[in-house]
Design goal:
It contains eight helices and 14 strands. It has helices spanning 89-99, 127-146, 152-166, 225-230, 238-258, 261-280, 291-307, 330-341; strands at 18-32, 37-38, 42-43, 47-65, 75-80, 83-84, 109-117, 178-181, 195-197, 210-214, 312-315, 321-325, 350-354, 360-361. The strands form three sheets. Strands 1, 4, 5, 6, 7, 8, 9 and 14 form an eight-stranded mixed beta sheet that branches. Strands 11-12-10-13 form a four-stranded antiparallel beta sheet. The protein is globular and about 70 Å long.
């Protein structure tokens, strides 16, 4: 296991004047939710997520060496879908400030960051997770040129570590189908500092799992996730919630091995509703679900009860619904979505996704 100090480089053995990289990084959907954090993006409880395949951010990074006299601050241009995006810049500036100690070359270069998503920004799909993971991969690609002796394991773990400093859940978007983040006694190698590929047996039932994302509300959330996390500090139910996350993650270890879909559904839906219960019972309190979110949940419960098809839902910190189901029932579930759920989606929009493998160099 790596410590934070392990990610501070001593010296670089190579140099490079300019160049560019391009990476795609996927979003992810947490099954056990992380909600609440300590300083430096350390999670208050562990989480585990499916890495997605189609919902991703594609980021190009071009870099050019600056004159030494210019190196008093960071220098970067930010483009979103090819056009300057000034309102994203403060978030990138803050990210660079957080990671500079781990990437001491950052002020030596001017960067052009050109990023695009395959899904609507601020749609309640975790664009900050995929965006920060893609950016971290690009920065690590530059560091690997400066330090060619870097191991593959170090490269990916440090990328996850850096991504976390931009957006907590971004550390789960680097590697693997199933990713755990946060210290969990029963998960070997787990860490608060970065995500790790789930190290134990996973039943065939969970291979190629499907996630159809119903876009209930594509607008900006009225309360950001950052604010929501902060409201856990004095939350009356916080400590019990954190303990529950550990318990649910322990249960999932067994469920992933056995393939028990009924038990999987109980944990995943309970986690989703608990996340929103925390929002509704914080002070100030707030609700991110919309009426159509509840319509969809009730329709899924009715359909599952009548057909015994193992389809379930989860939610992120927003109104959209992730419909999760094994690959072998895809046709029936998509027909159900078409027949009964599309009517509750904004402009009838939904995204078909499935488990993916993490970041890809382009």
């Amino acid at each position: 296991m790596f410590t934070a100090a392990d990610f501070i480089p001593n010296t670089y053995t190579s140099s490079i004047e300019n160049g560019n990289f391009e990476w795609s990084a996927p979003s992810n959907i947490a099954l056990v939710k992380y909600w609440g954090k300590k300083d430096n993006q350390i999670p208050a409880n562990p989480s585990v997520s499916f890495t997605l395949k189609n919902c991703k951010t594609i980021t190009k990074l071009a870099f050019a060496k600056r004159e030494a006299s210019q190196e008093s601050n960071f220098s970067f241009d930010l483009l979103f879908e090819g056009k300057p995006k000034e309102d994203f810049k403060p978030k990138i500036q803050k990210f660079l400030e957080r990671i500079e100690v781990y990437l001491p070359f950052l002020k030596e270069y001017h960067f052009t960051i050109d990023t695009q998503n395959t899904f609507p920004h601020s749609s309640g799909i975790a664009s900050s997770a995929s965006g920060m993971a893609a950016l971290a991969m690009n920065f690590m690609s530059l560091e690997r040129l400066l330090n060619p002796e870097m191991t593959e394991d170090y490269f990916y773990q440090k990328a996850s570590f850096l991504a976390r400093l931009g957006s907590g859940s971004a550390c789960r978007s680097v590697k693997g189908n199933l990713v755990a983040w946060g210290n969990q006694a029963n998960i070997e190698g787990s860490s608060d500092l970065y995500g790790v590929e789930f190290p134990y047996a996973v039943h065939e039932n969970f291979k190629n799992y499907q996630d159809t994302i119903l876009l209930v509300d594509k607008g900006e959330k009225q309360v950001s996730s950052t604010v929501g996390h902060d409201l856990m500090h004095n939350h009356p139910y916080a400590e019990r919630r954190f303990a529950q996350a550990h318990e649910n993650l322990d249960q999932l270890i067994t469920i992933f091995e056995s393939g028990n879909l009924n038990e999987f559904i109980k944990i995943v839906e309970s986690e989703a509703l608990t996340l929103h219960a925390m929002m509704m019972t914080s002070m100030p309190y707030y609700i991110l679900m919309k009426p159509n979110t509840l319509q969809i949940i009730n329709a899924i419960w009715k359909f599952r009860n009548e057909t015994q098809i193992p389809v379930c839902f989860t939610l992120d910190a927003g109104a959209n619904v992730h419909v999760l189901y094994p690959e072998n029932v895809t046709d029936k579930v998509l027909q159900f979505i078409q027949d009964e759920l599309v009517v509750f989606c904004q402009n009838g929009q939904y995204i078909c996704d499935e488990i993916g493998d993490g970041v890809i160099a382009l």
